[in-house]
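quick q for whoever's on today - can somebody do inverse folding on this one?? i tried earlier but teh output was garbage lol. tokens:
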């Protein structure tokens, strides 16, 4: 390895790069034609330093946490760590009762692990289960087989995402974000825009997610005087707020652009397992909670896995994607269990942030998921996938109920609303075609008539307060059929009233 000083965003940082011979060993191919070196099709990232912020690069492993594996060695007398004595903990065992009546007793070993400090990346058995799941669903696509892919379990995917952004976005940087964009990500970014001069370059989307030509143009036209963005953020499946899903051709095109422009991608995918991928007639998905005596439906899990759209992670030959997933939408939101998967040099940086902030994911929450994995899913990914297939079928039926309610109120039929039908997730993104300002409608008419929607302006990365926006987000997750029918009837009344008042105002406005 050569130690080399590279200019990295105004800083000079010493990094190790492989010597030419070692590059071949690492699987990094270069092709030579006419004495010119051309770029290979797969372009594994060789140096992650240029993507990382100075703060992230300065993080050092915790000395105490580094001792953990040594402390765990059989026969070791440890006077080094700071573990509290578990004899003082009052909880002896944790028992779960599932909705189908099954009981899972965690037992001594798992209860002890759940209550004690544990490894930063997560309980090793849980990480191993997720590695099996990731290999089953996303494969192991890195062209550079020596590069390790790592998984971190986290306290929800939001926290992992925030830590990734902290590791990758420095003051003054520009981040590429899809527009509209998940409001939780904007909550992380907007203070950075205000206080640190971070800029958000909006990449437009349509019913199929990010638009490749638009992304290419933004980057091709990037002014030479300002540093090009290096990171792209997207929610590719059942987007929040749009409900849109990028089909495989789109994903391939966007990934090719990430290669062309040397981007790291943040694939924020909490709705991946809410894809309406199986036909509604699939009998195995009809029952949300199968009886306790029914064994894990591996066939259903396999069927669902085969029907899922491939993720960016599964296309990631270059190791340039960090994937964020959540168990919030399929197991429990309150347990706060999420995971991120990606190339070790980037994931390690997120792990160091965890070491310095929350130390580790919550032990009891991990133990609950691990208990489900071992007992309900029999340790096989297909067990989890079968559960996810049933949850997705549930959300499909909720989506259909909302579409039916909209139809009864003739919102689309009468030309008042435009939307695309979501193929995943729990959101509908509605354009109110005849209303000047959807935010005013939500805050005024809709609040008065007790129907709540989210104003679309909240999801526009660079919108100014008070800017008119025609969109609202509706959720079909928790409302009953009756509430949906009544809610859409009220929305129709609000639109009719807003149109009538707009008309009046226009008639009363002085003629120029
Ligand atoms: C797009 C997106 N990313 C991340 C999250 C956060 O999920 P978690 O509960 O895992 O933190 C959400 C939650 O709604 C979301 O919609």
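ok took a stab at it. sequence:
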């Amino acid at each position: 390895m050569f130690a080399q000083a590279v200019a990295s965003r105004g800083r000079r940082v010493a990094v190790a790069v492989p010597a030419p011979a070692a590059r071949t060993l690492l699987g990094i191919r270069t092709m030579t034609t006419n004495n010119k070196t051309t770029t290979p099709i797969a372009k594994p990232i060789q140096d992650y330093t240029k993507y990382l912020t100075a703060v992230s690069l300065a993080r050092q492993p915790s000395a105490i946490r580094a001792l953990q594996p040594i402390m765990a060695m059989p026969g070791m007398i440890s006077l080094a760590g700071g573990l509290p004595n578990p004899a003082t903990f009052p909880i002896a065992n944790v028992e779960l009762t599932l909705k189908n009546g099954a009981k899972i007793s965690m037992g001594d070993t798992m209860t002890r692990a759940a209550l004690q400090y544990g490894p930063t990346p997560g309980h090793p058995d849980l990480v191993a289960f997720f590695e099996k799941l990731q290999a089953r669903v996303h494969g192991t696509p890195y062209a550079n087989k020596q590069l390790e892919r790592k998984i971190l379990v986290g306290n929800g995917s939001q926290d992992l995402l925030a830590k990734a952004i902290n590791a990758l976005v420095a003051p003054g940087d520009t981040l590429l974000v899809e527009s509209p964009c998940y409001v939780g990500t904007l909550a992380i970014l907007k203070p950075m825009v205000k206080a640190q001069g971070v800029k958000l370059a909006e990449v437009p989307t349509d019913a199929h997610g990010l638009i490749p030509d638009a992304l290419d143009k933004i980057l091709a036209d990037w002014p030479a005087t300002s540093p090009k963005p290096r990171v792209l953020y997207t929610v590719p499946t059942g987007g929040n707020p749009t409900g849109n899903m990028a089909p495989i051709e789109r994903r391939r095109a966007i990934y090719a652009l990430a290669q062309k422009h040397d981007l790291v991608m943040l694939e924020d995918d909490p709705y991946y397992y809410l894809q309406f991928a199986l036909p509604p007639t699939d009998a195995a998905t009809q029952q949300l909670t199968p009886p306790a005596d029914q064994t894990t439906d591996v066939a259903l899990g396999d069927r669902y896995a085969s029907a899922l759209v491939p993720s960016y992670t599964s296309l990631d030959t270059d190791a340039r994607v960090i994937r964020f997933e959540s168990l919030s939408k399929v197991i429990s939101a309150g347990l706060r269990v999420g995971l991120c998967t990606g190339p070790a040099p980037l994931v390690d940086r997120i792990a160091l942030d965890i070491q310095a902030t929350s130390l580790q994911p919550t032990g009891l929450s991990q133990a609950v998921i691990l208990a489900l994995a071992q007992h309900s899913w029999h340790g096989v990914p297909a067990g989890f996938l079968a559960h996810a297939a049933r949850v997705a079928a549930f959300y499909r039926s909720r989506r259909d109920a909302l579409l039916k309610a909209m139809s009864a109120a003739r919102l689309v039929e009468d030309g008042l609303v435009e939307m695309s039908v979501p193929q995943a997730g729990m959101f509908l993104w509605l354009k109110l075609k005849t209303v000047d300002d959807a935010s005013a409608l939500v805050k005024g008419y809709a609040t008065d008539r007790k129907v709540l929607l989210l104003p679309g302006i909240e999801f526009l990365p660079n919108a100014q307060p008070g800017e008119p926006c025609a969109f609202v987000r509706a959720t079909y997750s928790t409302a009953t059929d009756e509430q949906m029918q009544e809610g859409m009837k009220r929305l129709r009344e609000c639109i009719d009233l807003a149109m009538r008042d707009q008309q009046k105002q226009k008639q009363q406005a002085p003629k120029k």
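fwiw The chain has three domains: 2-40, 107-390, 394-508. also The two ends are 74 Å apart (CA to CA). so keep that in mind when u check it
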